[in-house]
Specification:
The chain has about 675 residues and is an alpha+beta fold. It has 5 domains: about 70 residues; about 110 residues, PAS domain (Beta-Lactamase); about 110 residues, 2-Layer Sandwich (Beta-Lactamase); about 120 residues, PAS domain (Beta-Lactamase), CATH 3.30.450; about 130 residues, Histidine kinase-like ATPase, C-terminal domain (Heat Shock Protein 90). Helices cover about 50% and strands about 25% of the residues. A 5-stranded antiparallel sheet has the order 2-1-5-4-3, sandwiched between helices. The longest helix has about 55 residues. It is rod-shaped and about 245 Å long. The termini are far apart.
Length: about 675
């Protein structure tokens, strides 16, 4: 029975309906008889034919259903093959393209008609073609086993992309040699770029990790996973095996200097780093050599799936910085202590004239605490400075000048103050501010005034002593003139008036006149020793000693260095002092022998007088130290800046020592 073929799903459906109707009709025929008179054999044959026809029709129906299913499967295959998101190629044994899908043609940048028959190797970048040929040979040789290759592919327009090639050899019979190659191409350009970026990032990280000047370690499960060379140097380790795999606590003391447990301290910072993304702490470590080192540790956690956090830790040696910081803190505390314990008021200000220091002395002087002053503008603290020379002085200090002021408005209160304004220089030499030392000189001024009054009173006493001495000298000279020269001249007058007396009285008168002349000469010598002017101090002192009768006092004179030139004032003073010392010894000491030493050495005049007289008690009111003689010597020494020392005891004689500094 001829049945037209079905070319579409609609015609197949119509054929099935017709077949169904005919089958129903045939079914009724099978149940019908041929009538009487027809042999049974004919009836049986007809029924068998009818049943066979129904079976054939049912088989035909199954074949139609199989055809429909095959058409549907073919449609799905075409859809999956042609519109698949990856490229499918079929290559022959020499590598020519036999078949490819739409995605494959898009990957190679051309239409399928132009690609079929061309060698696939032409679309592989030249540098990867050798690898591709090996891939093809390996795939054909390994029948039934998939092979993969990553290669750079190029399109007709010259653009490239990275593809993952997966190949499988195909044979039509089990024993035949593979003749075709199924090839799947997946565009992995994005993945390849990410992979390369990750590799570059890893390489950079590894380079930074290895070449970092800071010590870097990786820690997981409280053990070191890796470390760089700087970490080995910091820990004094010779090889990474001495660090990697060891527990973290191996390089730390159990407790820190403040008593805190090291492991608990690190754990708390790690938990903080997990919450905040990073954590920092300063901790004391211990090298393999046993040496302690302070480090600043920066902890950065990296979460990993199914594992504990990976910790990236950077150690920076801050031992020197910590020591410097401690020293700076010590210096700061010392400076603050120095400021607070200074006897002067100290005020510091910066370039903007803001107060940066205000010590306790200023708090006491002003009654204003430092907390209310520091940070304020100096011109706000002392508004009376504005527009005055005081403000100008502050700016001059900031230009590097040093000043001293006695008239700042701050000191208009009771007492006397001095202000020293000093510029403050930074380590680079730039002026960073200024410093004002405010010194209370009230007591010093009072003492200076008292010293001035004492000096005036002393000068008055010296002047009075000089006047008294001069008056005594005048009195002595008057007595000498009256009792000596006057009497002699009067006797000579009487002899001359008595002319009748003869030659004897004339000679007596001449003798009296000669004696008057000698006495006058001695008095003149005492008043102004001309020999000192003419022959110098040494000869004058020797002549002075010669005039003293030995039966009155035996004087031993020791002179040294008097040939050196000196101002005349010192020679006159020395002569008068020695003269006064000898006069005192003759008048008061009742001595038999005296030793006078006058030495000029190293710009100093040393004068000493020693006698074997009765001596005296130095602190009695009637002692010779209070007399005119020593008082005159003291007055001369005060004027010359000399010193006098008296050593005397009753019955033991006296030693008087004088020292004068010679100023040219």
């Amino acid at each position: 029975m001829d049945t037209p073929p079905f070319s579409s799903a609609g015609s197949v459906h119509a054929a099935l309906q017709e077949l169904r109707a005919r089958a129903e009709k045939r079914k009724s025929l099978v149940t019908q008889s041929l009538g009487e008179g027809v042999p049974d054999e004919a009836h049986r044959l007809v029924q068998e034919l009818q049943v066979h026809q129904i079976e054939l029709e049912m088989q035909y129906e199954e074949l139609l259903l199989a055809q429909v299913e095959l058409e549907a499967m073919r449609t799905r295959y075409v859809d999956l093959y042609d519109f698949a998101p990856i490229g499918y190629f079929t290559l022959n044994a020499v590598g020519n393209i036999v078949q490819l899908n739409l995605k494959a043609s898009q990957q190679l940048g051309s239409v399928r008609q132009r690609l079929v028959g061309r060698r696939f190797a032409w679309y592989v970048a030249p540098q990867h073609r050798a690898n591709f040929q090996q891939f093809v040979s390996r795939t054909l040789a390994a029948s039934g086993q998939r092979q993969t290759l990553e290669a750079l592919l190029q399109r007709d327009d010259g653009t490239t992309f990275y593809g993952l090639l997966e190949g499988l050899a195909v044979t039509h019979e089990p024993e035949e040699v593979p003749t075709q190659l199924r090839l799947v191409v997946v565009d992995i350009t994005r993945q390849y770029e990410v992979k390369k970026a990750l590799e570059a990032s890893e390489a950079r990280f590894r380079q930074l990790f290895e070449q970092s000047h800071d010590a870097v370690v990786l820690v997981q499960n409280q053990h070191y996973l890796d470390c760089n060379s700087s970490a080995l140097t910091l820990l004094a380790a010779l090889d990474s095996d001495e660090v990697v795999g060891h527990p973290v606590t191996e390089f730390f003391p159990e407790t820190q200097p403040d008593g805190q447990n090291t492991l608990q301290l690190i754990g708390s910072v790690v938990r903080q780093a997990v919450r905040a993304g990073s954590g920092k702490l300063e901790v004391l470590m211990r090298r393999l050599t046993g040496e302690d080192v302070w480090v600043e540790a920066v902890i950065t956690p990296f979460a990993s799936e199914g594992k504990t956090e990976l910790l990236h830790i950077v150690w920076r040696d801050i031992t020197a910085a910590r020591t410097a910081r401690a020293e700076l803190l010590r210096q700061k505390e010392f400076s603050e202590s120095l400021l607070d314990n200074s006897v002067d008021g100290i005020l510091a200000f910066d370039q903007d004239l803001r107060v940066t220091a205000w010590n306790k002395v200023l708090q006491q002087l002003s009654g204003r605490p430092a907390a209310d002053i520091i940070g304020q503008l100096l011109l706000d603290v002392f508004p009376e400075y504005r527009g005055t020379e005081a403000e100008q002085s502050l700016h001059e200090v900031l230009r590097g000048q040093r000043l001293m002021r006695h008239d700042l408005p701050f000191h208009q209160g009771r007492g006397h103050f001095e202000s020293y304004l000093v510029p403050l220089a930074s380590p680079t030499g730039d002026i960073s501010g200024g410093l004002i030392h405010i010194r209370d000189v009230t007591e010093r001024v009072r003492m200076a005034e008292e010293a001035t009054r004492l000096k005036l009173r002393q000068q008055q006493e010296v002047l009075a002593a000089i006047l008294t001495t001069q008056e005594e000298e005048r009195k002595r000279i008057a007595e000498a003139l009256h009792n000596g020269v006057g009497q002699l001249l009067y006797a000579a007058k009487l002899n001359l008036e008595n002319r009748s007396s003869g030659p004897t009285y004339r000679e007596a008168a001449l003798s009296l006149i000669d004696e008057s002349i000698r006495t006058t000469r001695n008095i003149s010598h005492e008043l102004t020793p001309g020999i000192l002017e003419d022959f110098g101090l040494k000869i004058a002192l020797e002549e002075l000693v010669k005039r003293i009768p030995k039966q009155q006092l035996h004087v031993q004179l020791h002179l040294l260095g008097l040939e050196q030139p000196r101002p005349r004032l010192y020679d006159v003073a020395t002569y008068r002092i020695v003269q006064e010392l000898l006069t005192n010894i003759i008048k008061h000491a009742q001595a038999q022998e005296a030793f006078i030493h006058v030495v000029h050495e190293d710009s100093h005049l040393h004068i000493s007088a020693e006698d074997d007289g009765v001596g005296f008690q130095q602190h009695t009111t009637d002692s010779p130290t209070k007399g005119i003689g020593l008082a005159g010597i003291r007055n001369r020494l005060d004027l010359l800046g000399g010193t006098l020392k008296v050593d005397s005891r009753p019955g033991k004689g006296s030693i008087i020592t004088i020292e004068i500094t010679v100023k040219q």
